[in-house]
Amino acid sequence: MITKGIAAVVVVLGLLFGLYVLTLPDAPETEQLSLQQRAEQGHADAQSRLGLIYAAGQGVPQDDTEAVRWFRLAAEQGSGNAQNNLGVSYSFERGVPQDYVEAHKWRNLAASRLTGDDRERAAEARDALAVLMTPAQLAEAQKLAREWQAAFDARQE
Questions:
Q1: What is the reported pTM?
Q2: Which of 22, 79, 108, 127 can bridge 74 by disulfide, Cβ–Cβ 3.0-4.6 Å?
C-alpha cells in the first residue's frame, strides 16, 4: 500500500521528469535532412534537436535509444538541454536502464548551464531525485558531475 508521502513524491517526480520538451515545429523533410547533416557534423544544438525528434517520433520512427545517442553526443559538448534530456532518459528508463545516479549527474550539470525557468526546472528535478537516492548514491552522483565538469573544462583549454 502506498503512503500519502510516497504518492506525493511520485506525483512530483511525474511532473518534474515526465516528458522531454517537445515543442519542435513540424519541419519539412529537407529541413530534417539538414538537421541530420549538421548533427552528424558535430553541432550540439542539432544533435540535441535530433534527439528530441527521435524521442517524439516526429517524422522518424520513435526510438528512445537513438534519442539517447544524440542527447549524449550533445551533452558531452556541454549542451544543457541535452544534459537535461539525458537526465530524463535515465530517470524513466527511456533508451537506457533506469539509473538515478546518472540521472542526478546529468540534471545537476544541466542546472549549472541552463538559465531562467529551464534552470529552475532542472534544479527542482535534480532535488526531487535526491529524495529517492541513498546518501551514497547522492555522493556518487555529485562526484561524477564534478569529474565530468573538470574533464570538460580541461578539454576547453
A1: 0.82
A2: 79
